[in-house]
Every structure is written in C-alpha cells, then in structure tokens.
Amino acid sequence: MIDRGIYSLVVPVRRAFFGVSLLNGLVLNSFAAWNLSVDGDGRVSWNSSKSLDTELHSLGFSLRKTIADKTGDRFLLSGLFEANHNFKDLMIHELYFKYKGPMGLWNITAGRIGIPYGLLTYFSTSRLLFESSIEQILGFDADNGITVSGVKGMFDYGISLTQGYGAHRMPSFPGEGFGAARIGIVFGDAEEYMAGLSIAGGYTQKDHMADTSIKRFVGGIDATISISRLLIRIEIDGGLVNEHLLFSLFSIIDYALHNRLDLNGGFKFIRQNNHNSTILFSGLTVKPKWVTIRGGYTYEKSQYSEHTIAVQLYRLFSFSF
Amino acid sequence: MNTQLLFSSTVCFLFLFNTGLVNAQDVYLCVWRNPERTMTKIFPEAKDYSTINLKVTPQQCDSIEKELGSKLLAGQRDQFQYFKMTGNAGKPVGTIIAASQKGEFGAIEFVIGFDTSGNVVDLYIQRSRERDQTFKDRSFLDSFKGAGINDFEKLKTMAANTKSSGQKAVIHGLVKEMVTYKRLVGVHKE
C-alpha cells in the first residue's frame, strides 16, 4: 500500500460514501475484509516570515476492499478522504475502482486516481515535513480519469489519461486532457534498487481553483536506493510549463539510527518562471509505540531567505472488519 | 481562538493522544508494493490468487503465542492474511504469506511461499534497514527450501545457533507464520 493520505467539499464526500455503500450491498458475499485507515497529522511551525502557526494539517480516512470472483482477486475499491488545514479544505483525494488482470500483467483503474509519474507512483510526501515538487511539475498528485498499469518480471509500467483538474475540484466532462506514463525497473534480490522514466503532457488548471488552463510537457527520471540503513530517493525533472522552462531536482534521504529513530535530509532545487528556488531540509523522526514525531529545520533561498522549524505529530490507525 | 481552530485542536488532541489504542500506530504488517512480481518468482506457474483475511480471536492468539513461546507483534494479534495461489483451471499451487518481523533498525518484511503440502518453496526479502545484511544472502534464504510447516522446532534451534540479528529475525518470523498458518487455516472454513 502506498503512503498516501486522504482531502474540499462536504457534498462530494457524502456522495462518495453513498457510492461505497451501494457497492457494499453488491459484494456482501465476498470473503475479503474491508480495511479502514484513519490518520491524523498535527503540526506546529515557526517561520521567519509568517511567525508561529499551529494546525491540524490533515485528518484522513481511507477505505479499501478487495473483491474476489471464483478464480481470484478481481476488483479493488479504494477511497481516500481528507480534511486539511484545520478542516478548511475538505476533499476526496482518491476514489477509484480497479479491475485486476492476470497476475499483475495489467490492471485498469478508473476514478480519481494517483498519477503514474516519478517517485509519486510509489511514494507520497503529503504527510512529511519536506514535500516533493510534484505540484510545480504536474500541478496535482491525483486526477479524474483512467490508468492502465502492471508488472512483468523486473519491469513495471503505468499509463494514465485524466482530465487535468486535480483532486481539489468536482469533475466536469470532458476536462482539459492530460496524459502521464512511467516505466520502471527493479534490481536486486530484495528489490533494493528501483529506477523509472516518466513523461507527462497536456492541459491542466493553472492552480487548484483556477478556471484558466495551462499547457505542460514534462519528463523525468527517478531512483530509489536502499542500502543497509540508508534509503535514498531522487527525482530529476524538466520540461515546459505554461511556455516557461522548468527544471527540478528533488532528493530525500532517511537513515535509521535506531529501531525508533531516523535521521532525515532533503534537497530541492526548482527553476520555474525564470526564478530559482533552493530548499534544504534536515530533521529527525522518532517513533514511539503510539505516535510518530517528526521535527525539522527547512532553509529556503529564493528571492528572500526563509527559515522554518516545524514539529509534527502523526498517528495512523488501521482496522480490518 | 476561533471555533474552527478550537474544534481542530480538540480533534487533534483526542486523536493523537488517545493512548487507549496504544498499539494502533505500531503495526507490523508487510507493505507490499507489487505483490505479483514476487508471487510469480515463487510460483511461475500461478495464474491467479485470492487474498484471504482471517480474524484472530484472543483464544487463538493465546494458543499461537503459547506454541511460539513469544508474543505476536502489534497488527498480528487480531488478523492474519495470506494469499491462495492458483494455476490452470483454478488448481491450487500453494500459499504465499507476507511476513513482517522486528529487526534491529525497524521491520524486516519478507515473503514466503509454501507448496500445497506445506513445504517452503522460496523466501524473498522485501524491505529491511538492517546493518547486518547476512540474512539477505541467497545461501541463507535457500537453506529454508523444503522445510515443512511442522519443522519449526528445527528452525528454532537454527535461530539459537546464529549470532546474526537479521537471521534470527527472519527465522523467528518464518516460525511465527508457520505456527499461525497451521493453527488458523486448519480450523478456518472458507
């Protein structure tokens, strides 16, 4: 399961739950369990330009069910609902239906889906203090549409066609039109090395709530390397966004100091609209039994220098019933 | 303080500091990215699979722990998951279990395949962050091939004779899955 949370309107959340209830009625006889995950992300941060801020960054609900036919697992129903920024931003981050093909060779996923691009394919930073550049590169991390994905030997792939609206808006037909694809390869007996090549293009909304669209054409390479206690993730992207060159380098490193203590580091460089921005991050993750505590310092150099110190309390519950 | 912030703070406090569900965060479950990739390495003849989730009652948990001589980890005390692998015409070819065991620097996640007679077909490490890497050696992992689901006493001796914390964790994890599978699947009516 990918590390992804749950997101802006009461009505769509209610509709989504109603949809799930209808499907539940159709699959009462299947033996696979429902899985409900609830996660909470509370943060206190001090920023050199905005001073002190305290917020319930996210409260997420994730619901999943695998439905089997007589030959095996065939359908997956998954929903991810989020309340962000002290409940000011309620949204359906993901809500999809997946048809599973033979032994992972191909799967078809339809609904509000995660985009198969770069590190995002398997790793989300939405619950971390140091976030990736995906908003600048694609404009969103989830969108309404369809994906074909699969795995064959050491290779995996994903191709999506979506509306280009992102996950913050209600879908309306037909949308702007956006495509993304990634091909990945895994090396190592314990799958220690992963690499991927991604491409995406089309039209997206200018920002989450804008009615104007912009053109994007981007590509990138990503790698995940696990060596002993060290985990390195890196992604390099480039392309044209709204007729301006974009270049992005993102890297995040975790090093296990102890069973319940990780050292974290991050580096991000973005050149967009002829402006450069460099962000450095260093932090610690402490994992007592009942909560994850993350603390970190972020230095950002763009037009001005900015310093941020943040502490996050994160908790995840997962239930099967 | 406005109402929204007060509400958020209350939810945040109750959620994050609810120690009544003390073990909910600390869960040892194998997070499996592309299960089919490893499944087809273990059972190349597999055409499909079904995910089976079983509830573990407190009595079953007690009997498993008694046989193991140690406690099950958080997330393993109330549920057990395995995958029933099938070949041509739905014929069973074996069982896959995704295991997770506490290592020196976090969870070691690995995947075990059993044939229909309950013998280990193969074992693959999925994720780990250990200093000691000897448990990843193919020669060590291959030593379990052919071990029967009732051979766990022999495996316990093997664990006692190794100094490698990673190897101990993999053996303990394997024994735990063997005992749990034997206890639960034998009594479960699908």
- Which structural class fits the helix and strand makeup of chain A? mainly beta
Spatial strand sequence of the major β-sheet of chain B:
1-2-3-4-5
Indicate the low-confidence ranges of chain A by residue numbers.
1-31
Structural classification of chain B: alpha+beta
Q: How many helices of chain A does DSSP assign?
A: 2
Kindly provide the radius of gyration of chain B, computed on alpha-carbon positions and rounded to a whole number of angstroms.
19 Å
β-strand percent of chain B reads: 15-25%
Q: Bin the helical content of chain B.
A: 25-40%
Q: Mean pLDDT of chain B, rounded to whole units? A: 84
Gross morphology of chain B is: globular
Kindly report how far apart the N and C termini of chain B lie. 55 Å
Number of contiguous helices of chain B? 6
The main β sheet of chain A shows up as: 16 strands, antiparallel, barrel
Q: Biggest interface in this structure?
A: A-B, 52 and 59 residues
Rg calculated over all Cα atoms of chain A: 20 Å
Reading the helices and strands of chain B in chain order gives HHEHEEEEHHH
The major beta sheet of chain B can be summarized as: 5 strands, antiparallel
What level of helicity do the residues of chain A show? under 10%
Strand neighbour order, sheet with most strands of chain A: 1-2-3-4-5-6-7-8-9-10-11-12-13-14-15-16
How do the SSEs of chain A run, as a string of H and E? HEEEEEHEEEEEEEEEEE
